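INFO worker-7 received task bundle
INFO bundle size: 2
INFO processing item 0
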Amino acid sequence: MDNRPIGVFDSGIGGLPVLYKLAKAFPNEDFLYLGDNRNVPYGTRSEREIKRLSEGNLRELVSLGVKIIVVACNTVSACIGDDFSGRRIFKIGINQNNREKFVGKGAFLGTPFTVGEILKRSPELKANIDFYPLKDLAGEIEKEPFSDVEVFKHRFAEILAESFFATKENNFAPFMDIAEHKKDENERKEVFHDRARVFRDHFEKQIARYDFLYLGCTHYLFKEKVIKSLFGDIKCYSGIPSLIENINFYLENNGIFGENLQTIDFAGECARKNADTFAGYVLSV
């Protein structure tokens, strides 16, 4: 038995849906959540910056007496190890446990850093997964996690289109270069307008090919239903079930399950900025 809390770390509010699932899976564990709202988003930063910020937050959780640390941020998970200052770290993301479940053709949505690191470590995944680095989506959700559905759907489509256009593997990259170098706003709009029908037809066919969708940033879980609706009736993965399986195995194998009534506390910037707004989300969704 070990009644110390489980520490959960994210670059902002994205880890709260993960915290909710963990609280349901481990009803006798206490949790301490630290969200680095001051420096979010992480996904557009350099690896050095991400490591520096992450290690500072991990040190804070260790100083607060957590028994293990759950990194509920795909971007951070892509660049840190499995242990920190004597604490076991459990990371969300694609691993052997969940990648074996992928069947058919998939789409992976994530931050530019996460996508880049996955493709660097596991380039073979490109054989059956198309990767979309979404530059601004996590930041958009961080600002307005409960924004109007139609407003978000429009913004998400724009960000997804920008990623699709810029992908070298399709025929739209030259078009993006042309549009971006047009100095006159009307000319730029005209270029986009001329290609809009071609893009829409091509991308709708592209989406129809997918058998599964992987949400590679925990911020996206706030908008999972909306995002999934644009891809149709396909399976959606996030890595949470395998994360819970790994944590359960470790706690059981080491005899460190808790026997608490369960409390959920917030640390650092998250406590000052988001506790009132988001604690209800964690406990009631």
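INFO item 0 finished
INFO processing item 1
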Amino acid sequence: MSMQTFNLKMLPGVRWEILRTLHVAGHLGATESMCMRVVDAAYLGVTRDSLRDQLDYLEKRGLVAIERPELDDWRAALTRHGTDLVEYRIECEPGISRPECFAPRT
């Protein structure tokens, strides 16, 4: 399998790890460095630029809000919609590898 194919296949998982990290960070959100440490523990080869690409993707889907200071790390936080997705209150569209929830639905 080529490196590019591997990278494309791992993107949905990277997106889920970013969302989980931001959920744990709460309303203050997390910096890209914080997200990078979590993602790097699960997926080798993720660069700062590819992490930013995934943050952009999640922002376009309305799941995160991003502050982009010119001289500092980006900071992202979940939107209401992003929180609902991570907490399994809404359906997850393709593109994010959210594990199945095993709790009974009410």
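INFO item 1 finished
INFO post-check item 1: Helices lie at 3-25, 32-42, 48-60, 80-86.
INFO post-check item 1: The chain has four helices and three strands.
INFO worker-7 idle
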